[in-house]
Structures are given as C-alpha cells and as structure tokens.
Amino acid sequence: MNGWTAAGTALLLFGAAPAGWAAATGPVRRRVVAQNSATTLVALAVLLLAQGFGRPAYQDPALVLAVLGPAGTLLYVRLLADKLAAGPALPRSLRAATLLNYAAVLLVVGPLCAATDPGRAVLKLLVIGALLALGSRVANRAASAAASSGGGPGGPGGPFGPGEGPGARPGEGTSDV
Amino acid sequence: MSDVPLALALALVAVAGTATVLVRDPVRQSFLLSLLGLALALVFLLFQAPDVALSQLAVGTALTPLMVLLSVRKVRRRARDERREEHE
After folding, report:
1. Where is each MrpA C-terminal/MbhD domain found (chain B) (predicted)?
2. Which of A50, A156, A21, A34 is nearest to A109 (CA)?
C-alpha cells in the first residue's frame, strides 16, 4: 500500500463518507449539494487509487463519473424543484461546498499531474479535473438558483422554475388522462 | 494490495444498502440508491473490473434516481387529481 492508495483511502473515509452521510440525511437542499460533493470526491478517490495501483485504465470510471455526477445532480434539482423552492435560500455553508470541491480537485489533480510523465496522460487528467470543477460549479449554481427562486409566490422563474408547485399546471393533469 | 480500501468500500455498500431498505420515503430512498450505486462502482473497481464499474456508474448515478423520481411524481400527481375531483 503506497502513498497514493493511502491518500485515496483517506479521501474516501474523510471526504466521500461524510458527504454521503450529508446526502442521506437532512433537508433536501443540503442533500442535493452533498450528493454533488460525494460524486466529485469519489471520482477524485478513483483517480488516486488508479495511480496507486499503477493502472491508468482505472481512470476511466472517474471520467464517466465527472460527466454523469453533475447530470444526476441536475436531475435532482429539476425533479425536486418544488421542494427546493419551498424552503429558504441556500445558506452560505452550502455555497462554500463548491469552493471545497475546487480545493479538492486542485489538491488531487495537481500532484497526479506532477507524478505522471508529460503527454496524453497529463492531458487526460487535466480534462477530468476541469470536468469535475465545471460540473460542481454548474450543479451548485443550479441548486442555489432553484432554492432562491422560491422566495415569494410571484417570484421570477425560468421555464423550469418554481411554477411547478401544487396546482400550477392546469393543462398537464387533463392531458395525462 | 487493496485490502484497506476494499474493506472500506464494502462497509460503505453495507451501510448504504441497509439504509436504503430501512428508509421509507421514496425520495430519500432515491438519494440513498445513488450513494449505493457509487459505493458498488467502487467495489467493482477494487475487484479489478473497471468495465462493470462503468456500467454501474451509468445506471446507478443517473438512471435509477430518474426512474424513482419520475414514478413518485406521476403517482403523486395522479393522487392529487383524484383528490381534486372528489372535492368537486
């Protein structure tokens, strides 16, 4: 067990497990943000473990997770929009989760790039890191926008905004039948 | 070589799976299901099967929550419409 594997295990234990706990308990708005953090941290742990095992092919699940994790979070934001809009806006601590994700991405991808030989492998690592940071930014912006758009009943809403509250879609119920 | 991370990932799977069974609200279950998918993908990766981990990620992180949440939405909307018709 070398340093990379130990770092990946530590990231799983002290990063992904608490994020998973936060995603499994508590109010919906915290769950959505924590789910995004959990996917980001698991992807970073996979990168570290791949380096520790000396198998670059193991980086592929991290790449897939970097694309699919934010997609899953956006899905939650879209389908739970009424619950998010019903609560208060996101507190500052949840907005800081994005910064935490950025810091984790930098702290993991930087040493990994320094440890690999320059070439396509470094490019792949950089692409994965950029996707993780970008996905975390997009997902958290969507979550905070959905949570803060529910301030009032007449608040401004996008096409998928808070207009999905109970009884806000008169045409939909009849067209289903 | 990977005993410690494997034990950790297996523990995560056990906790997430048990919690998914014990929680009764479908929306909360969908969050736990996506976490269970992540933990299972990690286990598959540590058992040296990255291809299985790839497909588990594709199914577990996006498709399963989509199915659960869409079904919950449909059922609740139908129940609401029926209640409204009874009210009228």
Report:
1. 11-77
2. A50
Give the closest-approach CA distance of B1 to chain A in angstroms.
Answer: 6
In this complex, the residue of A45, A61, A176 whose CB is nearest that of residue B53 is: A61
Q: What is the DSSP letter of A162?
A: G
With 70 as the cut, is the pLDDT of residue B22 above it? yes
Q: Which of residues 52-81 of B touch A (CB under 8 A)?
A: 53-54, 57-58, 61-62, 65-66, 69-70, 73, 77-78, 80-81
- CA A83/CA A172 separation, integer angstroms: 19
Q: pLDDT tens, B28-49?
A: 889 999 999 999 999 999 998 8
- Contact status, residue A85 vs residue A147, Cβ threshold 8 Å: yes
Which of the four pLDDT bands, split at 50, 70 and 90, describes residue A159?
Answer: very low
Q: Are A75 and B69 a contacting pair at CB < 8 A?
A: yes
